[in-house]
Amino acid sequence: MDIKNITEARRWSEEKMQKVGLYATAGMFCDVYCFEPGQFQKLHNHENADKVYVVLEGEGRFVVEDEEQVLTANETLGVAAPLRHGVFNDSNERLVVLVFLAGEYPKSLSQ
Amino acid sequence: MDIKNITEARRWSEEKMQKVGLYATAGMFCDVYCFEPGQFQKLHNHENADKVYVVLEGEGRFVVEDEEQVLTANETLGVAAPLRHGVFNDSNERLVVLVFLAGEYPKSLSQ
Fold first, then answer.
1. Within a 10 A sphere around the Cβ of A100, how many other Cβ atoms?
2. How many of the other CB atoms lie within 10 Å of CB of A56?
3. Which helix (H) or strand (E) holds A8?
4. Does domain B34-103 have CATH number 2.60.120.10?
5. What distance lies between CA B83 and its chain's CA centroid?
6. SS3 for B34?
7. Per-residue three-class SS string for A34-98
8. Which end of chain A, N or C, is surrounded by fewer C-beta atoms within 10 Å?
9. Domain residue spans in chain B?
10. Nearest CB to A74; choose among B2, B6, B102
């Protein structure tokens, strides 16, 4: 059985936010993103993949196109392709986010 | 922005376990499954879709083919298509599981 423990999987670096892969197939991945205070995932987009962020610890400022909102533990954000999005840890605490991405298919899953 | 709160989304029934949809596209869904003590998701499989379970609260007995293991909060299980799998709440507490499924494509994402 392909079991992981998110608490143990977390990894930190002073250099930049860390992406820890839990599962990946041809059509999806499930990662844990670990942000020290001040770290971020810069604005980007996926032409053909949809993403779900799940905040596990701390709080982050999530941006989708020209909107933004601070989310805390147990809050989730869905980002349909091809919207531009990013995550910023403006807080003084560590931020841990679970990330699911499905797609990179020829056609957006949101269409 | 498509934001949800998992704590608020949880829903319970004495009848059977509840599936609460958070996000769904043509190629994936993200649900919250809510099990009262004794409730379960029976063994089943997906021909062409991969699943990730994330235990959020409580503990559940997860079965994949002829293996099983009890998982608690912050533990995850990946189930590649077309493996047979199910979830059983044998405990005396409520069980909450985040479920991400990507696929139902002609070809398994795991191949």
1. 26
2. 20
3. helix A6-9
4. yes
5. 14
6. strand
7. EECCCCEEEEECCCCEEEEEEEEECEEEEEECCEEEEEECCEEEEECCCCCEEEECCCCCCEEEE
8. C
9. 34-103
10. B6
Instruction: Inspect the interface and report whether the beta carbons of B111 and A26 lie closer than 8 Å.
Output: yes
Distance CA A85, CA B57 (A): 29
A3 close contact with B: CB closer than 8 A: yes
pLDDT tens track, chain A, 111 positions: 999 999 999 999 999 999 999 998 877 889 999 999 999 999 998 888 899 999 999 999 999 999 999 999 999 999 988 899 999 999 999 999 999 999 754 343 343
Sort out which chain B residues have CB atoms less than 8 A from A6's CB and list them: 54, 74-76
Closest chain B CA to residue A5: B75
Q: Residue A46 has which token pair?
A: 């996926």
**DSSP secondary structure code for residue A111 in this structure:** -
The domain A19-92+99-103 is placed in CATH, from the list 3.20.19.10, 4.10.480.10, 3.30.70.20, 2.60.120.10, at 2.60.120.10
Q: Do A78 and B5 touch (CB under 8 A)?
A: no
Please report the residues numbered 7 through 36 in chain B whose beta carbons come closer than 8 angstroms to any beta carbon of chain A. Answer: 7, 22-23, 25-28, 30
